[in-house]
Amino acid sequence: MVRLKGSFSCVAVYGSLVIFTYLFVAKPSSRPPTDLLDDLEINCTNILQGLKNEKQLELINTKMIEDKLWNSTDRCHTVKSMFRFNEVPLSEEEARFPLSYGLLVYKELSQVLFMLSSIYQPQNEYCIAVGENSASTFLILLEELSDCFPNVHFMKRPPITWGSYEIINSVYDCLKFLSHLKSNWKYFQYLSGVDIPLKTNLEMVRILKSLNGTANVEIKVYENRRLLGQNETESPLPLFKSSLSSLIPRKAANYLASSSIPQQLLEFLRNTWVADEGFWGTLFGNKGLFDVPGSLNFEEWIYFKENARANLTKPTDGWFYYISRHQIWFESGCHNHMKDGSCVFGIGDVSNLLQAKALVAHKLYLTSEPEAYFCLLKEHRRRTLNPDSTFDASKYSELPQVEISQDRPVSELTHLNWIL
């Protein structure tokens, strides 16, 4: 060992060491390290306008991604190197208004991870429910995510198939689990593995604040043919139809988790067709009979819905009340193709999706015009890192003044947080 003589020499060497460390070892990076999404080379300028590029994007090798994760000796490190998961809240406003998600997924691990990483924030909570009939590698790799992220919670469920009772049973169990966490999350939302966020976390926070504790649930008449021979009067509440995707405030989640009515309704719906579409609407549409915080009177809404536009005292911009999920059910509004009765969005739908009021869109596939999916994610990331100063959430809380027949009670109409 050679010892330097003199204090000046020691200081000089120490100073050089500090400079070297800063420049080559510990220099703070102005940008986070790149991931798979960053590394995808796509010219999104045309795509974001709904126009195709001359050269199509090759399908991403999802098997290679899954194999890399499966063969990794440190899967947490590998998943974080391939998918960007924010490690700190991006703003104080977001930190003070955490959200929660219930995810029901069963295949396409890569797409699930792209979606999860896009909505992930360390202050939020995530429940991932997976049916035991999914592939074993899919189950194992998703379960291990809970070891990588303390706010990601895994639930192994009984076999899940399209339209089965276990869909809503699993989502409700996720809601109950999340309601018992000490985390002070404010709103719950359901997502599937083929959904994509249309709003950033900050935008969602501001939108949900404007709802002021009101649930946002699709409102439709329940078709009796769904009962498959059961007697509707045996239901604990009058039935309404709604999408599985709903925005549920924390107070409502706590209320539902402690009440016996949801479980009674689940049992009644067990042998109906597509049980999940009779659940949230029924629970949140019977204010007065079942007074869930944030609930509405759906009967009154359905009564004046058809005539409301003609009675408005001010013009509207064409928006509707339901903002949880954007989904197209008719072929004429779909620019890609239909699958199971709804649109698989593609490049021609991108510009419309960017203008949609909803928080998420359903559905996009990596195997069908993947440029649409990845350019939407890239645009979502851009706005996440560079918030849009012109984004206005106040329009989500506007309630047009509606005049309807005085022989109908309208006491609950003031609770409606919808936009016509």
Automatic annotation (TrEMBL):
Listed A to Z, the keywords are: Glycoprotein, Glycosyltransferase, Membrane, Signal-anchor, Transferase, Transmembrane, Transmembrane helix
Membrane protein topology class: Single-pass type II membrane protein
| Cellular component, GO annotation | membrane
Q: Where in the cell is it found?
A: Membrane
Instruction: Give the transmembrane ranges.
Output: 6-25
Pathway entry? Protein modification; protein glycosylation
In the UniProt record, does the keyword Glycosyltransferase occur?
A: yes
Query: Its domain of life?
Result: Eukaryota
Q: Name one GO molecular function term.
A: acetylglucosaminyltransferase activity
InterPro entries listed in its UniProt record: Glyco_trans_14 (IPR003406)
What PANTHER family would the database entry show?
A: C-TYPE LECTIN DOMAIN-CONTAINING PROTEIN-RELATED (PTHR19297:SF124), GLYCOSYLTRANSFERASE 14 FAMILY MEMBER (PTHR19297)
Report the family membership: Belongs to the glycosyltransferase 14 family.
This one is known as: GLY-16
Species, as recorded: Caenorhabditis elegans
